[in-house]
Fold:
Amino acid sequence: MTTEVRVPTLGESVTEATVATWFKKPGDSVAADEMLCELETDKVTVEVPSPAAGTLGEIVAKEGETVGVDALLATITEGAAAAPKKEAPAAKSAQATSAPAKSGGDEVKVMVPSLGESVTEATVSTWFKKEGDSVAQDEMLCELETDKVSIEVPAPASGTLTKIIAGEGTTVDASAQLAVISGGDAPAAAPKAEQEGAHGEAYQTPAAGNGSRDVEDAPSAKKAMAEAGISRDQVQGSGRDGRVMKEDVAKAVSAGSSAPQPAAPAQAPRAPVAAEDAAREERVKMTRLRQTIARRLKDAQNTAAILTTYNEVDMTEVMALRNEYKDLFEKKHGARLGFMSFFTKACCHALKEVPEVNAEIDGTDIVYKNFVHMGIAAGTPQGLVVPVIRDADQKSFADLEKEIAEKGRRARDGKLSMAEMQGGTFTISNGGVYGSLMSSPILNPPQSGILGMHKIQDRPMVINGEIKIRPMMYLALSYDHRIVDGKGAVTFLVRVKEALEDPRRLLMDL
Structure:
């Protein structure tokens, strides 16, 4: 039986790739999920695993060739690798040596699960098991941390955790192997050195520098180096085992330096710290999520022309309506009636009138969204995340409350997927839950607007010539002044205020 090896999905807007390296040649035996070749796109490097065990037949797409999505790369003849008469004596000997390791069952690879669209790597944050521990199928083995979410990795089978390949703190790509589980309750009998020779070296973090000179660089990288007139020593490789990729050459050219790029950007020196104070300090490495938050917020300030306008809203009518119907609402819909659904509805109505607040800039174009994917910022122990309520403008109060509560709960538990935090067109941030009275929120790129909610506080207000105590909330709209004018921003905030002070307007679409 012949199995086709085809180009996998390369990611959003990516339609072709270059075959960088083949790790196998025709006639080689391959195991299921073993890496066959490496593809290089404009943005990332993609490893192609074997879809089945067998023998690699014809390689259709050679190194250096450009292929499209789903193009045929090679063929695999299933079962051919199992014929003992084709094995060399050395191979038979090796198989006999490893046989005791499988006496309790076959070895099972623990691979990095799907990380989500556009996410290519993760950091191993915590191992819940250690080598030699017995594990049950679906029991949590370790936790990975990406730029936005934490992902728990379950055991694919029951057995004994015999080898941890990626230790805590190791950065792994989307197709890397994390560990090995041997079936049954007994650990594998193969010597540790042999296991490392079989698995550890393939996923070892490359040493600093340019890597081994016998590593084959990507063909596109070789071409780019020749065109740029730079040598291999002037480029620091980021691929497997220090392999130079096309983007590495671009970085070296743009840097305009003959020295290899440093592994990390130079940090500004700290101010001098007294010895007695330094002894009482604690240094903790920033999580990937915190690093991403810091980078994105700074990028937003550097890119967008952020301006904030303010207003205040009398919450009397919303609070009265909520108090009157909250018990009946919860009884019928099984969800609590909060304030977020009112604000979401009010923003959706206002965005229809001022569509530029719901748009984004793409180069010299303005992209208007005829839908509202509402981001609801949520604080978690790991940092701020923004789950997205898709098509919020089409949902009822009950649908909004259920989805906001469910995604907020999963955000705090670190269970959100990447897809659930992508594609937002506008964001609401509620600093009032922490007691904030006034703030200026920062945009969530590439969005052009974000509404900041704040604490509800009783204040004296003049109503029809009389001073009355009213529950008031300050509202803040931060917007990108490149696309939203002051008039549009103020109009948006006034429409939100009007809808909340007279919720009947929401029912009549006014």
